[in-house]
Automatic annotation (TrEMBL):
This is Adenosine 5'-phosphosulfate reductase. It is found in: Cytoplasm. NCBIfam families: cysH (TIGR00434), PRK02090.1 (NF002537). It comes from the Bacteria. The gene is cysH. Coiled coil: none annotated. It comes from Aeromicrobium tamlense. Residues 67-233 form the Phosphoadenosine phosphosulphate reductase domain. Pathway: Sulfur metabolism; hydrogen sulfide biosynthesis; sulfite from sulfate. Binds 1 [4Fe-4S] cluster per subunit. The active site is at C254. Catalyzes the formation of sulfite from adenosine 5'-phosphosulfate (APS) using thioredoxin as an electron donor. The keyword Zinc-finger does not apply.
Amino acid sequence: MSLAERRERQLAHDRERRDHLAARPVREPRSREELKALAASAANRFSDGQTDELLAWVAQEFGHLTAVACSMADAVLPHVVARHLPWVDTLFLETGYHFAETVGTRDAVESSMQLTIVDVKPRQSVAEQDAQYGERLYERDPALCCQLRKVEPLTETLGGYEAWITGVRRDDSPLRADTPFVTWDEKNGLVKINPLADWTFDQLIDYANEHDVILNPLLNDGYPSIGCAPCTRRVAPGEDPRAGRWAGLDKSECGLHT
């Protein structure tokens, strides 16, 4: 394919996204009480998973008041969701501390898949945060750094949706072993869906290979769990997949799912 043909294909892809966004119906989110009741009903209905059936229900019930959270360790989750909800809003937490490979994965996903990237940014730039709290806050108070650069921005963004979909899996860590497929997210006030909860890491990779889904190259370089660059190291064979996150610190979660 020539450079001109590639350029035209990209322009067509971007036009299709813009046309879809312009045609979306506008609707205000329902009340917390209504959404909480939906979550309780769905938790019983989808207690055994059934990824495709669950996501078909999400597309019908919430439409584009649904957001997908994606760390860009891979694009499997948005790919699975977009089969039921094309051009779904896909939230990327732009912390300012990502690996170059993660930013590259984000850009490749946006330019090639039927989804709409929403960059979720903190109120402060890294430089502004350094000026207020001192440099390398992630070393001195990683919980506060995550709160400022991940948790608060996501909470503010989720206020415009009725449901959010995450890629949390039970085999991620012992703390996630009981992850439900559907639950009520009291902190954010909306329905939380974990359609890959019972998937293993191997199933994730198999799906990506079968469907030619983009993977962050760091996955093949010793990083089975990818977060901000200063707080993520390689994992040795046989180690817990999340052992490389906040290594040496009494911390294993960023606060988004707790």
